């Protein structure tokens, strides 16, 4: 079973694509952002520390993220394979991951910045089941309510304009250089993340069928 990493800027659609892809492949979707948000919601010491960085749109310190990631990777369902979304985000995390588990493919999602900002601003999510919506492109059937469980939809605190600007800058400075790193290892495959979620899903599956360069 494959071990896949999804790499790309905030709002590009990693979380939207990761769930269906993981389901198709029969592996779990591991998201460091979701694991951290669960720790924040649970009020754990790690969550309280991470919350300050997340609200500001900054990276949570490497050792905290590594702690929750290794715990999750050790669960039996993640042993054979996974779709990992949100890790690595800097060079040190990429080197750590290479030591932890062998990754087969790194899928890079590409989208212009104006489209990222639009997707982030219009995002809403369900606090109960985690389902993602977009007020323009994927609206809920009943405004403000989750289609699955009727919970009131929320806007993430880091989707506020200032946090979005910081997240995009952090991405450019710390995460984008990983493209060169994964190009040099031969693990990188890029996909155009514009268009509908169905179109992006098709491109993603095509990219997985391509042989490594
Ligand atoms: P994380 O949760 O990973 O956030 P992110 O990388 O900023 O990415 P997003 O979740 O915002 O975007 P996405 O690509 O998943 O897009 P989505 O599918 O939701 O991290 C959050 C924070 O946690 C970080 O800032 C950091 O503080 C911390 N953190 C996490 N990992 C860390 C790490 N490794 N190290 C240190 N700190 C870490 O889509 C966005 C919107 O667009 C939705 O509304 C969706 O419906 C819509 N949409 C999706 N696809 C399409 C489409 N094709 N067409 C139209 N709309 C679409
Ligand atoms: Mg996400």
Task: Summarize it.
The mean pLDDT is 95. Strand 5 and strand 6 form a beta hairpin.
Which helices and strands, and how do they pair?
Blueprint: E1 3-7, H1 14-25, E2 29-31, H2 32-41, H3 45-56, H4 62-73, E3 82-85, H5 91-100, E4 105-110, H6 113-121, E5 123-125, E6 132-134, H7 161-175, H8 178-185, E7 188-192, H9 197-209
Parallel strand pairs: 1-3, 1-4, 2-3, 4-7
Antiparallel strand pairs: 5-6
Helix pairs in contact: 2-3
This protein binds BIS(adenosine)-5'-pentaphosphate and magnesium ion.
The site of BIS(adenosine)-5'-pentaphosphate has 36 residues, from helix 1, helix 2, helix 3, strand 6 and helix 9.
Write up what this structure looks like.
With 213 residues, the chain is of the alpha/beta class. The chain has a single domain (3-27, 80-209), classed as 3-Layer(aba) Sandwich (Rossmann fold). Helix content is 47%, strand content 14%. It is built from nine helices and seven strands; from the N terminus they run E-H-E-H-H-H-E-H-E-H-E-E-H-H-E-H. Strands 2-3-1-4-7 form a five-stranded parallel beta sheet, sandwiched between helices. The protein has a two-stranded antiparallel ribbon with strand order 5-6. A hairpin with a 6-residue loop joins strand 5 and strand 6 (132-134). Helix 2 packs across helix 3 (45-56). The two termini are 20 Å apart. The relative contact order is 0.19. The model has no long low-confidence stretch (mean pLDDT 95). It binds BIS(adenosine)-5'-pentaphosphate (AP5) and magnesium ion. BIS(adenosine)-5'-pentaphosphate is lined by residues 8, 10-16, 32-33, 36, 53-54, 57-60, 65, 86-87, 89, 93, 119, 122-123, 132-134, 137-138, 158, 167, 195-197, 200.
